Amino acid sequence: MLSHKLILTGSYGVGKTSLFDRFLYNKFSSKYLTTIGVNVDKKVVNIDGRQLTMIVWDIAGEVTQDKIPNAYFLGASAMIYVFDVTRASTYEHMISDIDFLKAKLPKGIISIVGNKIDLVDEQFIQTELKTQAPLPWDILTSAKTGEHVEELFLSIGKKLLNRS
Amino acid sequence: MTPRKPMTEPELLEEKARLFEELKDVLLREDRAAFRRLENILDNPDELKHKMSPVLEDRLQQLKVQFPEEYRSIVERMISEKLANSKEELLEAIYPIMGKLIKRYIAYQFELLREQIRRKTQWNWRNKLSRRIRALFTGVAEDEAILAEFQDYSIEDVFIIQKNSGLLIASANKDADDDIIAGMVTAIKAFAEDAFRRPNAELERINYDDLILLFEAFYSYYFVVVIKGNITAATHQTIHEKMNNFAARELTHGKVRDGQFSLALSIKLKSEFFDNQEK
User: Fold this and answer.
1) What helix, strand, coil percent values describe chain B, rounded to 5?
2) B137 and B228 both lie in a single domain
3) Is B60 a domain residue?
4) B38 touching A (Cβ < 8 Å)
5) What percent of chain B has pLDDT over 90?
6) pLDDT per residue as tens digits for the range B111-123
7) Structural domains of chain A ordered from first start
8) Is B199's pLDDT higher than 90?
9) pLDDT confidence of B148, banded at 50, 70, 90?
10) Is residue B66 part of a domain?
């Protein structure tokens, strides 16, 4: 069975741990507990009859990505860059952050994810968010309702399997 | 004297040819002799060897003298290219050797420690007497008996983990949580090394309750040996030696490059550390 390291990264309070918990344990807590250092857990997924072990690293949020210990990025096959759709401060450094991550992971998959869509409506997404977000996102999720969370991880898993 | 009969045209031509041949013989005599000598030398291997040896020897000596100057840059470039192309393999091969050198140093330090213990124990006649009596009945040397008091341990598990990713390559006692443990210890290790930034330093040990996690870093992977109980420097050395031997024998670069779990390697790892476990 193939194993790959995935990283959840982004500013603090954007819902990385909530996405992690939703994907790995299918649970959600509205209580905010800041992540200290890193959480590591795994999930075995079955994609088109092939099994893949996803080792997910949920890294403590930092305002900019260059504050994160370099070693956490090493050996990752994919990175999920999470921002909070309701807080512009969580995506204002998106361009430099993504450039930084691309430099760290030149051959890896980088997915830009807007989380907490349960807190906004479609009109906000189509007007304000689309004009304000510095880069287009790959998927919008809600860790609270579970919307598109499984889809996010499975689409990355599929790309990883197709590569190997 | 009878006057010479004038030559006919063909006779004249024949006479010219004969004279030309005679002239050639005279003019080319030496050259032809030299050519024959050369032919003889070339046709006779022993003769050729005899003639060429001093020349070749001389050229070889010249080459020896001039080689560093004339070919250094070419050789250096070739070596640099080879090293650059096989850097990973080279480092993978060198790490266990370095480990053996370090092991020898540790062994030396351990001998010094034994000496110190021996000297310290000499003053206490009651202890000395008691240990001597025990030694007499058990056959265990006094200093060994002192060390044995600290040596109560068992190896609980051994992991081989890809250094960068934290992906589990092998585990002596495979458990469902091993992948998570591998990731988490890698994160802890990375955090400690990033936070304190000591040049060329690696996290070597974590103590947790009665467990000791020994880390041994190689180039692209590292071992974690989980030990329950107390270990002495001698035990540490034995474990260290096992890791080095296993690495040199089993962990070639290709086997660890992709960071994927190997059941075959795990079985070998278990056999190395758990079959006939020595204390």
Assistant:
1) 70, 10, 20
2) yes
3) no
4) no
5) 10
6) 777 767 766 666 5
7) 2-163 (3.40.50.300)
8) no
9) low
10) no
